[in-house]
Every structure is written in C-alpha cells, then in structure tokens.
Write a structure and sequence with these properties.
The protein folds into two domains: 3-199, Glycogen Phosphorylase B (Rossmann fold, 3-Layer(aba) Sandwich); 216-319, 3-Layer(aba) Sandwich (Rossmann fold), CATH 3.40.50. By secondary structure, the protein is an alpha/beta fold. The protein is 43% helix and 11% strand. α3 (65-81) runs parallel beside α6. The longest helix has 24 residues, at 22-45. It is globular. β4, α5 (150-158) and β5 form a beta-alpha-beta unit.
C-alpha cells in the first residue's frame, strides 16, 4: 500500500470519526468508481474554467452553532482573496443569527437541511425545492462547503448547477467536487477552514479569531439584563452551558459536576453564575440552578436570540 493511499484512508477515518477499517476503504472505492463518469460529465458539460476568479461564491455552513463560530474567520479571508465577488452564506436558521451584521458576508440565506436535523413540522422536500430554486436562480460560479458532506455536494452544489465545487477530499462524494482540498488529521477545526482559503490562493491566518458583530440593540439588551439582575462591572460573572443538544447526550458533563463546581465558584469567588441553554434544556439548567442557589441565574430558553446571549456572555470572565 502506498503512503499516499494510507494517508487518505487515515484521513477519511479521522474525519468520519470511525474506528472501522472497512468504511474508509468503501469511501475510497465509491469515489474511485463514480469518479470517472463524473470527470467525463464535467468535460462534456464544459464547466467554467476554474482558473477564472468567480464573481458569485456561495459558502455553505448550514449546521451547528459552534461550527459556524469557528468558520467566521473564513469570510474575511475570502473577501480579501475575491474582493469583487458577491459572497453570501447558506446557514441554518439558528447559526445564521450569528453572522448577521458580519461585514464580510453579503447576505445570509437560511436553510435547515433534514440530513442534519429533522424539521419540526412542514415538508422537508418542499423546503429543499425552495432552496434549490433560490440557489439556481443566483447562478453562482463557485460553492464552498465547509463541512465536507456528500448531501451538500450533491443536493446543494451539483444539482443546483454550480460549476466550481470546493470542499475536503476526505469525504464520501468527493468525486462530485471540482476542487478537492487536502485533509490532514489531528488539527483544529478552524485550521481546516483556513486550508480552503489557502488552497484557493488566499492568506491562511495562523490563529484565526471568531467574529460575531453585535448590534446596538443587542448591546443594550445585555446592559438591561445585567441591571435587572444587579450585576456590576466588578462582579465575577461566569457562564455555564450544561447542554449539548438533545441527541448528543454523551457530550454532556454530568449534572452533579456542574453543581459541585458552581457551588465552589460561589464559595471561593462569590461568583454570579449564568446558566444558559436551549428551551429543550431548560429543565436541566433549572435543576442545576436550584441546587447551586440564589447566586445562579437560569436563562435557558428565556434568551431566544443567540446574539442577545452572546452580548451577555461578553460580560462573563469564563464560559464553562
């Protein structure tokens, strides 16, 4: 086995977070089997020359909140690389809130893909057709998928008729891409996003910093919140976020650990604790608040907008 093939197998296993020895080889086999006819298709279709700088670029990050936060440095570097381009972002309805006011994003398009989260009511097929029509109508020259997901490759990029399709090569469906960005295992998530920028000829920032731009209204919300809870600038304010989504309970630190730590912080630093979470995590947050006592404030489910919460968290010394 060649070193390159072994490295590719290991990269796929790492990206898929699987210990299976079979699955990476299946991905490599499928990509190789279907790769040839798609290369022939691209030749016959005479897709746009990738050497020409695109003028309309769609960035796809329609999934998790944390992933979007880590992806925000990408937009500035893409704007520097393609200063004349129109660059919108396709985001989920929740994570899209975080990039409102971002000066490096021309507009936010929202879509909640059913392959990440099952929609509550409504037709996922109808929603897909709507976003498919919208993407096709914009006539994008390039799409960049920051996740490396075959559904995105096929449904949001290829079927939408976007000629230049860029994402990580260590993915099932990589044969659908026109540019495969190398993927090296064991690096920080934000560094992978910078790899895409570098691959496209831009500048890769060594330590990229997330950017969430707060509006005057969001800043005022935080000030009003602090005043209502009699929190002053000299107070030690610490945030706790005990939830991790309803379907990924294994990522949660145990409830009793938060209680023990919270009590210790109150005792040692007289800290005020702000316990955040989604509406579905309100019960968990309230149980922790009740066991810690009056120095804990439960805001899970009561602060509905993410950037309002971000404005409050900006006044915290630590977030756990």
């Amino acid at each position: 086995m060649s070193a390159d093939l072994r490295a590719k197998r290991d990269a796929i296993a790492y990206k898929l977070r699987t210990k299976s020895k079979i699955i990476p080889w299946m991905v490599i086999g499928i990509n190789a089997l279907l790769g040839l006819p798609f290369r022939i298709y691209r030749y016959i279709a005479a897709e746009k020359n990738s050497a020409v700088d695109p003028m309309r670029i769609l960035v796809i990050r329609a999934d998790r909140i944390g992933d979007m936060i880590l992806a925000t440095p990408v937009f500035e570097q893409l704007k520097r690389r393609y200063p004349a381009a129109w660059i919108p972002c396709l985001a989920s309805s929740l994570s899209g809130q975080l990039i409102e006011e971002n000066p490096f994003i021309d507009t936010v398009m929202t879509y909640d893909p059913p392959w990440f989260d099952r929609p509550k009511g409504g037709s996922s097929f109808k929603a897909y057709i709507q976003i498919w029509k919208l993407i096709r109508a914009q006539r994008f020259d390039m799409a960049i998928d920051l996740r490396g997901n075959y559904n995105n490759f096929f449904l949001l990029m290829f079927l939408a008729g976007i000629p230049q399709r860029v994402s990580f090569g260590a993915s099932l469906g990589a044969f659908l891409l026109t540019r495969e960005v190398p993927f090296e295992q064991g690096r920080h998530e934000a560094a992978y996003f910078m790899d895409i920028v570098k691959y496209l000829g831009g500048e890769a920032v060594i330590e990229p910093q997330p950017l969430i731009v707060l509006s005057d209204g969001e800043t005022a919300f935080a000030e009003s919140f602090l005043k209502a809870h009699k929190i002053t600038p000299g107070d030690v304010v610490i945030a706790m976020h005990p939830g991790a989504g309803m379907r990924i309970i294994y990522k949660r630190w145990p409830q009793e650990n938060y209680v023990e730590l919270g009590r210790a912080l109150v005792e040692k630093y007289n800290a005020t604790l702000i316990i955040s979470g989604a509406e579905t995590e309100a019960d968990l947050a309230m149980r922790i608040k009740q066991e810690i006592g009056d120095k804990a404030i439960c805001v899970a489910g009561s602060i509905s907008r993410l950037k309002d919460l971000a404005a409050v968290l900006r006044h915290c010394r630590v977030c756990i």
